[in-house]
UniProtKB/TrEMBL annotation:
Coiled coil: none annotated. This is Radical SAM domain protein. Keywords: Iron, Iron-sulfur, Metal-binding, Plasmid, S-adenosyl-L-methionine. SMART domains: Elp3 (SM00729). GO terms for cellular component: cytosol. It comes from Thermomicrobium roseum (strain ATCC 27502 / DSM 5159 / P-2). InterPro entries: BchE-like, Elp3/MiaA/NifB-like_rSAM, rSAM, rSAM_CUAEP, rSAM_horseshoe, rSAM_sf.
Length: 478
């Protein structure tokens, strides 16, 4: 039995992919939570007899020896930040292990597959990635060409894998403990936060969302038994709060409610949060009080904008009035609404931005909005549904492949300048731990200055009608 230079057994001259570490699964950044996008494929590969090594490079050191031992390396890139980190990591891998098969998987891998395959990747997987990744490893093990549904290579195009399969219970035992990840802060309560998903994909087709070009309005429910088993193992390792990270937890409200009821029955002291559309909060208002009774502390919702033309341009599906209604529904239920925002788009005016700031202050949401959201600029990755919108064409520039987005310029140069200034303020405020009201006041002053108007002389209004909102220690980002 031969042994190759990486120390992996190679019977009959072929690499043995069943040796420990012959398959390497890597995560780069997943919003401060233990990476489910590694735990699920890890469980799938183990069930088939493989022994992958998983490393979360956000909190772990990846040494050259681990890279050199691997024959197949798969990097999870579910979002833009992860892709930027993943490409830099891939360049290091190419230097250390040039013969290893390098695969990228996840939403942003799929959207940027042309660039990845041209410059660094051997294969890319999008959609439901577990079975395609297993098929890829089996093809490499056989030494045959990669002809696997859902796996695209330089030689073979493919569509994303939108196929149901038997989800395993995620394998988390070899990942870093929860103390390394985001914690819930709720008043004096600071506890480790777990993370799971009850569905993947989304019913809806917002034009700016990276889920849409891959799933095209489809979503897949993860069986209740799998979700609860995943929660159970995280609670056993210290989680006292669970984030449900579905693109929209209320795509399947009955499924979600049953899971929350079972969670509360088994672990009545474990709280949770989830993400849901404004439209769904309004539609399912009757469920919100029960979610609160079952332990829901806050809901993240993609408010994005208040400008009606901008909301229509990105096909968001709600109005300013709906946002106000959703706030009232959550207030009545005792659930904090934490808006995520997208304030800088080609359709957002300077007056719109000032109006958004005023709305945040008037509604006492300054502590509900993560600072980074005041600075977010629209990303238009390759394949984005926005490219199908004629409204975007007047502003669209060329594709900047290396930065994974189409360029665009705001028709009002003041908006582009303001975005850069706000981003710098937010970065400094986050780094130095500013009080949120101090940060908001500086951003507000910058916006008024950009508009050539005098900023209010009074400090931002502090909350009086709402309690301090619960939050996670890791800010939401993309």
């Amino acid at each position: 039995m031969a042994v190759d230079r990486r120390g992996v057994n190679a019977p009959n001259g072929r690499p043995d992919f069943r040796q420990p570490g012959a398959i390497l699964l890597l995560s780069c950044y997943e919003l401060g939570h233990q990476p489910l996008s590694v735990a699920l494929p890890l469980a799938t590969l183990r069930a088939a007899g493989y022994q992958p090594v998983a490393v979360d490079t956000a909190v772990q050191r990846l040494d050259d020896e681990t890279i050199a031992r691997a024959r197949a390396i798969a990097i999870s890139v579910p979002m833009h930040t992860a892709l930027r980190l993943g490409v830099a990591l891939g360049q290091r891998i190419r230097a250390v292990a040039p013969a290893a098969h390098l695969c990228y998987y996840g939403l942003y891998a799929w959207l940027n597959r042309d660039y990845l395959l041209r410059h660094i990747a051997d294969s890319v997987i999008g959609g439901e990635i577990e079975l395609p990744l297993l098929g890829l490893v089996q093809a490499l093990e056989r030494g045959t060409s990669v002809d696997v549904p859902g796996v695209v290579t330089r030689e073979r195009p493919a569509g994303p894998a939108l196929i149901r399969f038997e989800y395993p219970v995620p394998a988390r035992d070899s990942l870093p403990g929860l103390r390394h990840y985001a914690h819930l802060v709720a008043g004096e309560r600071v506890v480790p936060a777990g993370y799971t998903e009850t569905t993947r994909g989304c019913h809806h087709t917002c034009a700016h969302c990276p889920v849409v070009p891959v799933y095209r309005g489809r979503f897949f429910a993860i069986p209740r038994s799998v979700v609860l088993a995943d929660i159970r193992q995280q609670v056993a390792h210290g989680a006292r709060h669970i984030t449900f990270g579905d693109p929209d937890f209320l795509n399947g409200p009955t499924h979600s409610l049953r899971i929350c009821r079972a969670l509360h029955e088994e672990f009545p002291d474990v709280t949770f949060d989830f993400t849901a559309r404004i439209e769904h909060i309004v539609r399912h208002r009757d469920l919100m009080s029960e979610f609160r009774r079952l332990g829901c502390l806050f809901v993240v919702s993609a408010v994005e904008l208040l400008s009606e033309p901008a909301l229509q341009a990105i096909r968001k599906g709600h109005t300013r009035a709906d946002v106000i209604e959703a706030l009232r529904i959550c207030d009545a239920a005792g659930i904090a609404l934490r808006p995520s925002l997208l304030p800088f788009t080609p359709w957002t005016t300077l007056d719109d931005y000032l109006d958004l700031l005023q709305f945040i202050e008037d509604e006492e949401l300054i502590e509900h909005v993560d600072a980074v959201h005041l600075s977010i600029r629209l990303l238009i990755p390759p394949g984005s549904a926005l490219l199908e919108q004629p409204d975007v064409l007047p502003y669209l520039g060329p594709l900047d492949e290396a930065n994974f987005t189409y360029t665009w310029r705001h028709p009002d140069q003041r908006m582009d300048a303001l975005q850069r200034r706000v981003a710098a303020v937010v970065e400094q405020a986050t780094r130095e731990g500013w009080d949120p009201y101090e940060m908001f006041a500086v951003v507000r002053a910058a916006a008024y200055e950009a508009a050539g108007r005098r900023a209010p002389s009074t400090p931002p209004k502090r909350r009086t009608k709402r309690p301090e909102p619960p939050r996670l220690t890791e800010s939401w980002f993309c």
